[in-house]
Protein 1
Amino acid sequence: VGLMMPPEKYLCKQLHKAMDGIGTDEETLIEVLAPQTNEEVKKIVDCYEQMYDRPLAEHLCSETSGSFRRLLTMIIVGARDPQGTVDADLAVEQANQLYNAGEGKLGTDEEVFYKILAHSSFDQLELVFEEYKKLSGQTIEQAMKHELSGELYDALSAIVECVQMAPHFFAKRLHKAMDGAGTDDATLIRIIISRSEIDLQNVKDEYEQMYNKTLLSAVRNECSGDYKRALCALIGGA
């Protein structure tokens, strides 16, 4: 079914499913929203309200809480600077702010982390992370692992991965969906469909490099029937 609809419509269905009923699937919310540019987010937000007659922000706020909720809200209101917005002096300042909010003090000021990571363009964040490494000697991931936890950590580390190398993030998620007993079909379908028009070829290359087998062969082993044929056709055509 996902193959028959525009990507944003499909992602809206996935977001709704992640929040519908009892409990919330935070992993799906993170995976769908963390990599999006402002333009992509706007399409999703408009489409969601059209489909469900309810603003996405309102639904998210009712299903999440704390810093995690504030981060997701910032992403969907389009707070991120446009791609290509880069300021080297500001990057040094932001790296300092992150250091002082985490490693450089007792306790952690979460707000500084989610504001910078939700506001700055991905190009700007790349610079910020480089400056952070120079300043601290640690990567931003290492610092966040010590300073943050729970859903906020998961969401911010997903943003960091998507800034540095989105295909790596998705290859890891695909592997996790097929690893061990049983297959997480929903994640498998969602990633392959949602990345098919963006960077699926890069995700395939990264998957093969990381796991020493092709994504196509992994999906062939894990899936069956029409669903297997549809996914293999998408992967083969990427």
Protein 2
Amino acid sequence: MDLMTRVAVHRPRLVVDLGCGPGNLTRDLARRWPEAVVEGWDSSAEMIERCRGGGETDRLRFTLGDLRDWQPEEPVDVLICNATLQWVPDHLEVLPRLLAGVRRGGWLAFQVPANFAERTHTAIVELRGQAPWRDRLAEVDVARPRSEEPATYLEALLAQGCRADVWETTYLQVLQGPDAVVRWMTGTGLRPVLAALGEAAQDEFLAAYRSLVADAYPRREAGTVLPYRRIFAVARR
């Protein structure tokens, strides 16, 4: 919601959430703008099935599709990409086409994680380069997320003639329980790697990963602190 508070539109007619995942934000958008038609897009059939399982209406709908193929039948008033663009290679080149689908005076808002220099992520890259993981994952196309610096996003949006606001925030998350960072990462950055391995190999990989990140994130009395940097951008066309 840090992102959406900067979108200063009161009565949009058409809102699209690209990379909607399970649809939580999409439904929040529908509640915020009750007169708008809100559409969620995602490339995962599983996610879209979950979204539709929560119910669709004549003004809340979900579509299976890749954001790189997104072409609206009519320009939208608000286009949201929340924690999605980091999975799209060369996503700076995608921004002009996304903006082309936004009406004049409309809004593009996106957020990308920018914590890929953290030990949580560099340890994954390090392990992938070591035996036996180098050979086991050599033929597997495991997507590596990436983001640009805030100034790069600002320059790209200004070059498209937008009025833009770009900022970053580092959240200090306090995780509870033993093995907190590893458990967090198995639901986020480790998912593509673990999906490419068998169950036995997953346990072996996690043991090696755990040993690499333990010193960087010591467990304290109040919990384990995990810094999480995010970049936000809001542009008006």
